[in-house]
């Protein structure tokens, strides 16, 4: 019997890539107010430069382990330093952010240090939006009666900021952040931690997430059932088969009503519902 439902955060409960793209475009339009620029080319160049520079950075192996991306490196504050690598990132990131815009603008033969610094600071504020996917509120309301947990990869301050910024923190009885625990999805340890916090066995949990290689693979390793939310940003991975696949958390009959699932998961409403 399912007692707990666990959720990923980014691109499962809150929009991530669309907001990052919006922030990059806002910065690009600002730059275009000073110079004649190809805005789509500038946005693409900034994305590519961020990934390239991030991979060459001093803490790349650590960020891979806890699931902290180049895009997040453009706006994380690193105020909570639970690992030495986070101090390294806090010192390195300001130059990284400026260098991203130097490379992106340089592709269009623009050399303007002051503008690059302004864009780095502008992105920090432009990106701080935390919209929930439209079906999230209704789903969480219908899950009252289950234990709810959040399992998210990333650095401590940024993931906590996302959670509070989206006004989701009060829904969860336990939250596991990879950067706080020094272990990230798909490793079994982060799932074992959330189970201890919720006082449930892995076999009594359903993991809901958008990333097959992190969320679904991790659920399989931990002995949990899973729901893959296909938001269109991560391709299906045949190596990691979820029990259910949806593109909207309320679109499928399996996730309707009181989270009634009459197929592989065997969920039939909250555990405190009468038979």
What's the topology here?
Layout: E1 4-7, H1 17-32, H2 39-55, H3 60-66, H4 70-73, H5 84-106, H6 113-126, H7 136-142, E2 147-152, H8 156-165, E3 174-177, H9 178-181, H10 188-198, E4 205-209, H11 212-222, E5 225-229, E6 244-246
Parallel strand pairs: 1-2, 1-4, 2-3, 4-5, 5-6
Task: Determine and state the CATH class of the largest domain.
Answer: Alpha Beta
Q: Strand tally, please?
A: 6
Main beta-sheet strand count, sense and barrel state: 6 strands, parallel
Based on the structure, what is the oligomeric state of the protein chains? single chain
Percent helix among the residues? Answer: 40-55%
Q: At the fourth CATH level, what is the homologous superfamily of the largest domain?
A: HAD superfamily/HAD-like
- Provide the low-confidence segments as ranges: 252-269
The radius of gyration is 20 Å
Order of helices and strands: EHHHHHHHEHEHHEHEE
**Tally of distinct domains:** 2
What would the CATH topology of the largest domain be?
Rossmann fold
Shape: elongated
Q: Based on the structure given, which CATH architecture of the largest domain is correct? A: 3-Layer(aba) Sandwich
What does this structure look like?
The chain is built from eleven helices and six strands. With 275 residues, the chain is of the alpha/beta class. Strands 3-2-1-4-5-6 form a six-stranded parallel β-sheet, sandwiched between helices. 41% of the residues are buried.
